[in-house]
Specification:
The chain is of the alpha+beta class and 225 residues long. It has a domain of 61 residues. Helix content is 35%, strand content 32%. It has three helices and twelve strands, in the order E-E-E-H-H-E-E-E-E-E-E-H-E-E-E. A six-stranded mixed β-sheet has the order 1-6-5-4-3-2. The chain has a four-stranded mixed β-sheet with strand order 9-8-7-10, with helices on one face. Helix 1 runs antiparallel to helix 2. The termini are far apart.
Length: 225
Amino acid sequence: MEGKTSRDRTKRQIIGKRLGLEPYYVIAENTDTRLRIHSRPDANVKTGRLFMGVGAVLVLFSMALFCVGLSSYVEGMRSIGPFALSALVSAPCGIVGFLGLLGGMAIGRTVNTITINMETRTVAYTQQSKTPIHSKQAKNERKQILDFADITALRYTSLSYKPAFFLSRPHQIVVLEFLTRDGTTWTIDSAVSVASLEPLATAFSSVLGVEVQPIETDNGSGTGE
């Protein structure tokens, strides 16, 4: 069974807008006419496990709450109120938890790829995901195409990033990105330092034949630190 593929040439990035404290991509292929990077095998697994963990907690909580309500009804209270309340609360928790489990499994099986093709003069952002209900051969694929003609710069930029954890604090990270002629940005990768992104930046710079613009400071000068 073949998976579905959707392609989009919109000027706004949808696929691959992932920020983090460490590089998300590794170089898979690097030639004079083609550069392909894909997500690290363990990167999506960690995020998927987080979603699955939260989902499992919600499912267990909903089951425990339902059992408490059922037990109080069976053991003599014979009041529909507590049981109905427990059912009303546990049902949405269980549904959200189950969706979290499925979503976590899907995230863990997702692979993101960025491919520069010098022959077609395009940058392709691709996302392949396989949910647990899919067959082994079936994969959903989404793709966005960015034409070379739309790219005006390859640059570093700095921004504040807060990991998706309850007690996490904001971090200043460096983002490697494309700037397009209509003023939008397309994220390539991010990390806490320029040094962590240098292998990717060097590869992109080499295949595209452009210099990587350093981070702009308040006085307008650039820095590579």
